[in-house]
Amino acid sequence: MEENEHRIDPVDRWIIDPLNRFISNSTTSGIVLFSSAALALILSNSPWSDEFQQIWKHKVSIGYDAYIISKDLHHWINDGLMSLFFFVVGLELKREIIAGELSDLKKAALPIAAAIGGMLVPALIYLLFNRSGDTADGWGIPMATDIAFALGVLYLLGDKVPLSLKIFLTVLAIADDIGAVLVIAFFYTSDINVISLFTGAAFMAVLIVANVIGVRSTLFYGIVGIAGLWLAFIMSGVHATIAGVLAAFTIPARVKVSANYYSQKLEQLLVLFKSAEVNTLPTVSKEQFKILSKIENFSEQALTPLQRLEHTMHPFVAFLIMPIFALSNAGVELSSNFLTQIQSPVSLGIFFGLLAGKVIGVVGVVYLMLRLRWAVLPQGVNMLHIWGTGFVAAIGFTMSLFISGLAFRQEEYAVQAKLGVLAASITASVIGYCIIRIANKKNVG
């Protein structure tokens, strides 16, 4: 092999390759997210607490003349960056519905039903602690499951976890995401500005028509989705994150060239490339460049814009947006009345709503469907696995913190909600990990 036939530069060996391995590891996004939350807690209880909290209160404005939107950094993260998070959630939902685990309702029935149980029971338990008043608005907080953390716990257990259990939890968490999006859209939306809402609907119609007539430019969908749909939703009163989900559902999910045609064309182009004139200089020849451009073009057409966007944006969301969100939202100052706060109806409702409600809802529904013979357990999964999954599904974190920011404007309740979410999520992850580990040994035995 010639020296320059496959060159590995120092930047590849020391930076790019290790970074790619880090990003592709299934557990690292959860670790980064947890580390960001831990850092927020540490800084919030350090001598630099005031400076740390002040960062998120800086005003940022966009627009011109009379058309200016001015909000603090914390709001831009929750309304802006998190819209991109929900955009990726929407891409994942559409892919799963079209060609994934949600495409076969018969197979998906058990985890979907478990997800519904895991949303209703936590809300009811929360309302037992907070039956009336402003605190009752937090009933949606314990309904959510953090898919990144939940799957991260399973992947920490390695290959001993049945693949069918990972699929079960994935479908459960995705169905839970759909529920969370609907709850935000219908119950955590402020006063509606009809004109802005109709403007948003017009931009949505443009995106749908573009999909139907075959527009595949991700730049087009980005400009119309952000400059049009997202801004209209911000001014309409409907939470801007819903714009992210709606925009994602308009992204084309079909290939332009079939797999067979792509294979045939690629073989022809490779033959031409091998016979093309070779440039003795470091650059490729004009003939090679032309062939490589055609290969690149056909490769792009063989991928769906939906999958291409999801693959491109997932690391950006997992390793930048979500950690920033955790850093700006998970910080809680543990004052001298910490014990009083953790024992408040809000904290207790969220803690037991997540920790008990999720488990009762998930396991209860699964048990009921098995007894009625409406479903069977996935292959390799036992009931102890389901108990463990119930606890893992109780890791609310990102979605729960997000909904708590929508539910409570009072700082006192917001702090109590954060304490409940963090305490329940940490406890649930430890218990879920231990139970599934025992269940794996039971399967082996």
Describe the 3D structure.
- The structure is a single chain.
- The chain has two domains: 25-189 and 239-254 and 304-444, Up-down Bundle (Na+/H+ antiporter like fold), CATH 1.20.1530.10; 259-301, no CATH class.
- The chain is built from 18 helices and two strands.
- Helix 4 packs antiparallel against helix 13.
- It has a two-stranded antiparallel sheet with strand order 1-2.
- The longest helix is centred in the C-terminal third of the chain and has 34 residues, at 411-444.
- The chain has 445 residues and is mainly α.
- It is globular and about 75 Å long.
- It has helices at 10-24, 28-44, 49-55, 73-99, 105-129, 147-156, 163-187, 194-213, 218-236, 240-248, 259-275, 286-301, 305-329, 338-342, 345-371, 383-392, 397-407, 411-444, and strands spanning 59-64, 67-72.
Q: In terms of topology, how is this protein built?
A:
Elements: H1 10-24, H2 28-44, H3 49-55, E1 59-64, E2 67-72, H4 73-99, H5 105-129, H6 147-156, H7 163-187, H8 194-213, H9 218-236, H10 240-248, H11 259-275, H12 286-301, H13 305-329, H14 338-342, H15 345-371, H16 383-392, H17 397-407, H18 411-444
Helix pairs in contact: 2-6, 2-13, 4-10, 4-13, 5-7, 5-15, 6-7, 6-18, 8-9, 9-10, 11-12, 13-17, 15-16, 15-18, 16-18, 17-18
